[in-house]
Design goal:
The complex is a heterodimer of chains A (314) and B (620).
Chain A lengths: L1 H26 L6 H6 L5 H10 L6 H13 L13 H36 L4 H13 L4 H15 L15 H35 L2 H8 L4 H19 L1 H18 L5 H11 L2 H29 L7
Chain B lengths: L1 H23 L31 H37 L1 H15 L3 H12 L3 H28 L2 H9 L3 H37 L11 H10 L9 H32 L28 E12 L7 E12 L3 E5 L6 H9 L6 E10 L2 E2 L5 H7 L4 E4 L3 H4 L6 H13 L3 H14 L5 H4 L9 H13 L5 E5 L7 H18 L2 E6 L2 H7 L2 E6 L2 E7 H6 L4 H8 L53 E2 L2 H12 L1
Parallel strand pairs in B: 3-8, 3-9, 6-7, 7-8
Antiparallel strand pairs in B: 1-2, 1-4, 4-5, 9-10, 10-11
Classes of the chains: A mainly alpha (314), B alpha/beta (620).
Chain lengths: 314, 620
């Protein structure tokens, strides 16, 4: 297992490097000159030149990249053009918000998706199966932010069970955190749970026809034990293989859903950075997100290896 | 079909509204009227008005136009970028391929919306720019798809042979790639259209896509979000429009994928269902009584099993099967595939599955009826009193768990052993079935073992609870010939040691002769002959048994070629009335058309010719 982790971590270094080159070169394509943006029409030519020099913009692009990368490796992602706060600080401050939203919605999506998929697979063509399939088809067509609006209208404005907006950190109050994160997570997790339900169903239908399921039943193990232990463990293998993709989608979706609930996470930061063309902020955001995705991939790879002995390096 | 009609209607209406927006929308979508802002639906404004008093219905209709333009634009850009690059790198390979694929991997590992956000940061917001961003984003899937098809085609025989004869590889590739790439591209396009619609709505919602005052479904939802507490209805029309459109596109995509995926095979009609046979009328008590023996372990009496599909006539698959196995005895159940041997075994365990149903007869184990036990009682019988070893050991062990844990699990659950005791007993069992270094092998996963080794594990598991009956379903068929004999020897040894009764299912009379005391020959869901092994080999009575025996090699290479029984076992539902073997039998007479009972005591046979002999004996 350690070897698997080491292998994966090593394979990720080039990926991160390529992403950093990409984001750096993309963002240096920005049409506007950041110095003009900051100083505006005012400011003398001298002031412009001075700022340009201070920001290192007089250097050729590869020198700037090397300097940026050198700092990034040490955790310094530069300084925002506009608020003069450290990008690392700004991102790290919002990260727990988006992260807890993504993680909680992933949990909901997995629990709902697996339960619905298994229920559907146990009796193909039954009412439960038809309902689950219909629900999954619908779930994948509903925009997460619209579902969020509807949830707010019903459960926050109408029933007043949950707050309509805002986010409470887990460290401040776990119960308030749960209340603040429930509606956004449900909104965000809907389409992922639909996708997972479809995958679980088809994998489970296949696994339930396998000889080893019949053999386990012939050995007198109970139906629930055979389904939950023997069948589900195998059915989750293909599901886990694409789970990191689903979580990547959730992370992206969180940026939008945050806006519905006025949650001050990475999404708000990103939208602000686009409007202001805040290059260091965008670079930092992309890099942090890729690091997150990569971490998720690593975790799902490990789970995949645990579920599927054939995938382990021997 | 209903689905396709629904999806086509929705998309048709969408297109019509997009084209005819200028004529059908009741108001100018940009016309403000602050006096009548945020109105609920009324006869003047069917879907109400928004915060600036603009007519929601009109904005919705113009939103159709934006949706069509946006998806067409983004999808076209994705195709135009993705397909040529995919063709190029797939064809060129080498560094080009390596670099482009690393970039694609990097792009794919960033959440899609973030990629779009960065591109929009460079290009600026707005309908066309946002669609360029989405086009670039979604081009990666087309690129990978095209590259995959090219790489697959390159290895095709006709391309390689063209290379050998010196023909232009490029031209051949191009000629063959397009027909192969079109179907997956069409499917991918429908998937992309749905995703683009959702992404466009999302971008417009966060204000980075289509810019106000232009009416798009996403911007309408942006407005709605700000006034949720005053007029929640504002969120409904654009939301429903998005859902219906995406749903329709996805449904069409599913249908396309299914039909393309199944390809030409699907074009042929499904195989006609087996001809219906009249349902068996309530049959008189079994016409083939078996004499009861005192030391019986298993007794099956007049067993009937049918295929019971909802809405179809029941098709019999097992009729009037009666068998008995004594303590310490091995009964061979012999016949070609499709004769119902395995089903008989599964019926004993109550594992027939949802489609098959036992409609008649009884199964007794140690004198106790087990065919009508409830689920819980059956589970207690399985494993502890009856266990089964299956044909293919590599598929009958769970690939996710170590083989030792699969045996230990049974010991813990069924026998209530502690984890430590179960582990110790597991190693003993693995050792007993002849696997060296048992403690170490217990830690192995099924895929790490050879077939013979895996079958020994399966046998060890079946024996773990000391069952009184072991059903072995073709346990050596999937194994190498050299291993077969070892496993057969193991079965014989184990039976001596454990003293259980055994039901040995096989299609191979020679194997049956090796391990069995008695043999029951099955044909088309019936037992046609039972006898002691020696008697059966010395004097086979049923023509089918004789056919099976004469098909056995006699050990000498100078023998004439083996005769075979012409034809094959008829499928359930196509069985002739009367003797089911009559169509393949060389001794067929008119009387074969009538139903024939299984007669005899020590030896039983179901054949009209012995029927007559017995009748004559009775009459004389």
């Amino acid at each position: 297992m350690l070897r698997l982790v080491a292998q994966r971590v090593l394979a990720l270094v080039p990926l991160l490097l390529i992403v950093s080159v990409l984001t750096f070169s993309f963002t240096s394509l920005l049409p506007s000159d950041p110095v003009d943006l900051i100083l505006g029409e005012s400011g003398t030519q001298e002031q412009h030149d001075m700022l340009r020099k201070r920001m290192g913009l007089d250097q050729p692009v590869q020198v700037r990249y090397a300097a940026w990368l050198g700092k990034a490796v040490r955790g310094d992602l530069g300084t925002s053009f506009f608020s003069s706060v450290s990008v690392t600080d700004a991102v790290l401050q919002r990260l727990p918000v988006t992260l807890s939203l993504t993680a909680f919605s992933a949990l909901i999506a997995i629990v709902v998706g697996v339960a619905a998929g298994v229920a559907a697979a146990l009796k193909p063509q039954s009412l439960a199966d038809r309902l689950a399939t219909l629900g999954a088809t619908f779930g994948q067509a509903v925009p997460n932010f619209w579902f969020g609006l509807i949830l707010v209208a019903i459960f926050a404005v109408g029933l007043r069970w949950f707050p309509a907006t805002g986010f409470v950190r887990f460290s401040e109050s776990p119960s308030d955190w749960l209340r603040s994160v429930t509606l956004p997570s449900i909104a965000l997790g809907l389409s992922a749970s639909a996708a997972i339900a479809r995958q679980v169903r088809s994998a489970m239908v296949g696994v339930l026809q396998q000889d080893y399921i019949r053999a386990a039943r012939a050995q007198g193990l109970s139906r629930s034990r055979v389904i939950l232990r023997h069948a589900l463990t195998n059915a989750m293998v293909p599901v886990v293989a694409v789970l990191s993709f689903q979580i990547t989608v959730l992370l992206g979706g969180a940026l939008v859903v945050e806006q519905v609930f006025s949650i001050n996470g990475l999404g708000t930061l990103a939208i602000g950075a686009v409007r202001q063309q805040d290059i260091p902020m965008l670079q930092g955001l992309v890099l942090v997100m890729v690091a997150l995705v990569v971490a998720v991939q690593l975790i799902t790879d490990i789970i995949y290896g645990l579920l599927n002995p054939k995938a382990r390096p021997s | 079909m209903l689905i396709v009609a629904f999806a086509a209607t929705v998309l048709g209406v969408l297109f019509l509204l997009a084209v005819l927006a200028d004529w059908v929308s009741p108001y100018d979508p940009l016309q403000q009227d602050l006096m009548s802002a945020l109105q609920w639906p009324s006869s003047a404004h069917w879907l109400g008005t928004d915060d600036l008093g603009r007519d929601v219905l009109s904005r919705l209709i113009y939103g159709c136009r934006i949706a069509v333009i946006a998806t067409a634009e983004a999808t076209a850009i994705a195709l135009v970028i993705g397909v040529p690059i995919g063709l190029f790198i797939g064809y060129r390979g080498g560094w080009w391929d390596w670099i482009v694929m690393r970039v694609v991997e990097a792009l794919v590992s960033i959440p899609g919306i973030m990629v779009a956000i960065v591109i929009i940061a460079i290009l600026g917001p707005g309908l066309h720019r946002a669609m360029i961003a989405l086009g670039i984003l979604f081009s990666t899937s087309f690129l990978r798809l095209t590259r995959g098809v090219v790489l697959a085609e390159r290895e095709e025989v006709y391309v390689r042979s063209a290379r050998v004869v010196g023909a232009s590889e490029t031209r051949i590739l191009l000629r063959h790639i397009f027909p192969n790439i079109a179907p997956p591209l069409i499917v991918q396009t429908t998937l992309t259209v749905g995703a683009v619609l959702l992404a466009e709505a999302g971008l417009s919602f966060i204000g980075l896509g289509i810019q106000p005052p232009q009416a798009s479904w996403g911007t309408m939802l942006n407005t709605a979000a700000a006034f949720m507490d005053l007029n929640w209805f504002l969120a409904i029309p654009p939301g429903v429009a998005i859902i219906l459109t995406v749903l329709s596109v996805n449904l069409l995509g599913d249908v396309l994928r299914d039909s393309i995926g199944r390809g030409i095979a699907a074009a042929a009609p499904p195989p006609a269902s087996a001809p219906r046979v009249a349902p068996l009328l309530a049959r008189a008590p079994s016409d083939s009584p078996q004499s009861s023996r005192s030391d019986e372990m298993l007794r099956i009496e007049a067993l009937d099993i049918v295929i019971a599909m909802p809405g179809a006539t029941e098709i019999p698959v097992i009729t009037d099967v009666s068998l008995a196995i004594a303590k310490g005895e091995t009964l061979g159940l012999v016949g070609e595939s499709g004769s119902g041997k395995t089903l008989t075994g599964l019926a004993i365990l109550g594992l027939l599955g949802p489609v098959l149903r036992m409609t008649h007869g009884s199964i007794r184990l140690n004198g106790r009826a087990i065919h009508d036990l409830d689920q819980k009682a059956l589970e207690a019988v399985r494993g502890s009193e009856v266990a089964m070893v299956f044909q293919d050991p590599t598929t009958s062990l769970n690939p996710a768990f170590t083989v030792g844990s699969q045996i230990a699990e049974v010991l813990r659950i069924k026998n209530g052993l502690s984890a430590e005791d179960a582990r110790r007993r597991t190693v003993q069992l693995i050792d007993r079935v002849g696997i060296p270094r048992a403690a170490e092998r217990a830690q192995a996963y099924p895929h790490e073992l050879s077939g013979g080794m895996a079958q020994r594990i399966a046998i060890a598991r079946a024996l773990s609870c000391n069952p009184s009956l072991l059903i072995a379903d073709e346990p050596t068929t999937a194994l190498d010939v050299t291993v077969q004999q070892e496993i057969l020897d193991l079965f014989r040894d184990l039976q001596d040691e454990f003293g259980m009764a055994m039901m040995f299912v096989t299609h191979d009379l020679a194997v049956a002769a090796d391990v069995c005391n008695r043999i029951a020959v099955m044909y088309a869901g019936e037992v046609v002959e039972t006898a002691e092994v020696d008697a059966l080999f010395a004097d086979p009575r049923h023509p089918y048994t004789r056919g099976l025996l004469s098909a056995l090699p006699q050990g000498s290479s100078r023998n004439p070629p083996l005769p075979i029984i012409p034809g094959s076992v008829p499928r359930p539902g196509t069985w002739p009335t009367g003797c089911r073997f009559q169509n393949r039998c060389d001794r067929r007479v008119e009387a074969c058309e009538a139903r024939i009972p299984l007669v005899g005591a020590e030896r039983m046979v179901r054949c009209v010719h012995y029927q007559n002999a017995r009748l004559k004996a009775v009459l004389s």
